[in-house]
Amino acid sequence: MNSQRLRTLLFVAVVLFIAAYVVFQKFLAGGTIPQPGKEYIVLIPSNSTFDEVADLLKQQGIVQNDMAFRRFSEVLKYKKDPMRSGRYAVKGGWNMIQLIRHLRGGAQAPVNLVLNNERLLEDVAGKVSRFIEPDSLTLLQLFRNDAYIQSLGYAPEDLMSLFIPNTYQFFWNTSAEKFMERMTAEHEKFWSQNGRREKAAALGLSEKEAYTLASIVEKETTKNVEKARIAGAYLNRLRIDMPLQADPTVVFATRDFETPRVTEYHTKFESPYNTYKYPGLPPGPIAMASISSLDAVLNAEKHNYIFFCALGDETGLHAFAETYDQHLANVAKFRQNLVRRGLR
Questions:
Q1: Is the dihedral of CA 59, 61, 67, 70 positive or negative?
Q2: pLDDT of residue 32
Q3: What DSSP element (H or E) covers 87?
Q4: Are 114 and 126 in contact (CB under 8 A)?
Q5: Alpha helices, DSSP H, located in the chain
Q6: What is the torsional sign of CA 171, 174, 176, 178?
Q7: What whole-number distance in Å separates Cα of residue 131 and Cα of residue 114?
Q8: Among residues 219, 186, 225, which one has the least CA distance to residue 288?
Q9: Residue 318 gets which letter from DSSP?
Q10: Which long-range contacts (CB under 8 A, 24 or more apart) does 236-240 make?
Q11: Whole-model pTM?
């Protein structure tokens, strides 16, 4: 082979290599996730098929070259059913190989599930469903499954006491049952810390009863500074077998959550949650109790106060009294403050 022919062949080989490289790069670029630097969140439901995932990625605008995604999925052995579920963070600018390897690897982006001031189990189900895959109906059905919650040691009335408000990290594809397992573990962790279980026992309360009282304190005041004092007043009533006469319990009983004030309709309402009619604690919590309210009960102030009423000023605090006459004087001041503020 002469040198001229050799140079020609080399030239053709180089041209073909460059052409192939350009075609490959164009193909690869055509499968690149748009908007470099942007983060996309991909939610792949449990038991999804490959076609469903491909359609999902296309609908979100993450995959614009469907052929490239499918071809590379075959090469990288990602095309299988069911697909790996979960919540994934993917980056704009990634090519198809990077995207597929990330989804195939299962490196999920966790969510921070926030539980705080939910009032009813329906509210808990609604809140949790915003963070994990099961919908609110699936969660609520589990919450109302008597056999299941009994296996956890709860009844429908006291199941709310399982939930300790906090921020918890979960994977999005956590099942309803796994969520409850985690809540059970977090509940045990909470009560085993800081002598909480022993403090409840010293007050003559079970964990569920302490939670129930804390839920009442939670709805009596938003001021942490007086929660332990209010808890102490309620404990004093329990010790002398005086009805708690807690307004939040009759609001809960009637489900009249928007009422501006408690009236005779509420206090006469027939319900085991009506602490004006029935002594002792109600059958279960009337809301999710915050950690500050739980600790306020467990570390309640020791005093002789039996009564308390709102000050009626701008502070949102309460006035406390040992006798009914002192309480009536505080009620009179409350009304005067409302008149002064133009609220009566």
A1: negative
A2: 84
A3: strand 86-91
A4: no
A5: 3-30, 50-59, 66-75, 96-105, 121-128, 136-143, 146-151, 176-191, 196-202, 207-220, 227-239, 247-254, 264-267, 291-298, 324-340
A6: negative
A7: 8
A8: 219
A9: E
A10: 236/303, 236/304, 236/305, 236/306, 237/306, 238/280, 238/281, 240/306
A11: 0.87
Lookup: tokens for 342: 């133009």
Helix (H, G, I), strand (E, B) or coil at 243: coil
- Helix (H) / strand (E) element for 31: namely none
* Integer Cα distance of 233 and 230 in angstroms: 5
Q: Which residues pair with 90 in a beta bridge?
A: 40
d(CA 191, CA 265): 38
Output the CA torsion sign for 274, 276, 278, 284.
positive
Sites in the chain below the pLDDT cut of 50: 19, 21-22, 28-30
Model pLDDT, residue 29: 44
Domains along the chain?
12-105 (3.30.1490.480), 111-191 (no CATH), 196-303 (no CATH)
What tokens appear for 214 in the block? Answer: 């804390």
Residue 132 belongs to what H/E stretch?
none
Q: Provide the residue type at 73 as one letter.
A: S
Phi, psi (rounded to 5 degrees) for 142 = -70, -40
Quote the pLDDT of residue 24: 54
